[in-house]
Amino acid sequence: ADLSTSIAGVKLPNLLLNASGVNCRYENELQQLLDSSAGSLVTKSATLNSRDGNPEPRYAPLAGQIGSINSMGLPNQGYEYYLEYAKKFDYNNGKPLFISLAGMSLADNKAMCEAFRDANLPCVLEINFSCPNLPGKPQLGYDMEAMEAALKVLAPIIGKPFGIKLPPYFDIAHFDQAAAIFNKFDNIAYVTCINSVGNGLAIDWESETALIKPKDGFGGLGGLMVLQTSLANVNAFYRRLNNGKQVIACGGVTSGKEAFLHILAGASAVQIGTQLQEEGTGVFERVSKELQEIMAAKGYKNVEEFRGKVKTL
Ligand SMILES: O=C(O)c1[nH]c(=O)[nH]c(=O)c1Cl
What is the fold of 5-54+73-197+223-305? Predict the structure, then answer.
């Protein structure tokens, strides 16, 4: 079965890729993604300057393989590292490149977007409005006015199709408000739903201790336990966005089954985070095979036949 897709004007031979933040901080990790069955790759969210991130332990899988908690604190090499990578990238290799940016301020985001604009590269920018792990920094994705004000500055600078990484929303009014904002910007080509479910607390019952060190153990939740929230966000924006805007799913994909569900919910591509962290890049081959088996069993030849076709009662 054909798992290819197009997003923001670039073609992915396989709709599976990594979630920003996992296995994508360093060039060697990005090469592992290129060498895998993933159809594309997205870099670790970049800030103006390089960052070490929060003290460790800052990531932990949850017991029973239900998910993960993280408070990495935006460790990255600084945007110029990823700009150089994007300049050297072989855009004829068959897999497109997505670059994630997470400025600590609008000025930082503006400076980074201007630098990528001036470099005039085929990579696609994904602006991260949803990092939940910077002490004292509210997620921009939860401040509708600030998010719109930022987009009014950044969208014209970027000047070509780009995407936004969104936090999970839990209120229909927020789906309505956020989608109404995004529909105002012609070059928002897609939204990625969802980032981790912010500020969960994982505690080990034997040691009576939080699993991670930063922020008294508070961190973003990912993995299978966030699947239904992720499906809802994917479908909510799929129903609300217009003019061909697409949704990339992220959240709870451990097998072909969850990837299939996300496509039913409306996803054009599917990112894998926690399961990639736990299993390694072989996850892309496995999930691709499982998804193709499901499609064959159901008689689907390509994903367009069932994308967004979730039935309601
Ligand atoms: O702590 C992080 O680096 C982090 N962790 C997340 O779960 N989502 C993000 O967008 C980021 Cl930037």
Answer: TIM Barrel (3.20.20)
ipTM: 0.99
Q: Output the CA 134–ligand 1 centroid distance in Å.
A: 8
CA of 133 to the centre of ligand 1 (A): 6
Distance, CA 19 to ligand 1 centroid (Å)? 10
Atom of ligand 1 nearest to the CA of 53: 3
For residue 137, what pLDDT is reported? 82
For 228-270, what is each residue's pLDDT tens digit?
Answer: 999 999 999 999 999 999 999 999 999 999 999 999 999 999 9
**Ligand 1 binding pocket, CB closer than 6 Å:** 21, 45, 70-74, 102, 128, 130-131, 133, 195-196, 220
Phi-psi region of 289 (alpha: psi -120 to 50; beta: other; left: phi over 0): alpha
Domain residue ranges of the chain, discontinuous segments joined by +: 5-54+73-197+223-305
Ligand 1 atom at shortest distance from the alpha carbon of 222: 7
Q: Which atom of ligand 1 is nearest to the CA of 128?
A: 10
CA atoms within 13 A on the CB side of 138: 7
**For residue 228, what are its two tokens?**
């239904």
Q: What is the pTM of this model?
A: 0.98
Rounded-to-integer distance, Cα 191 and Cα 241, Å: 9
Q: Distance of CA 297 to CAs 135, 153, 261, Å?
A: 47, 47, 15
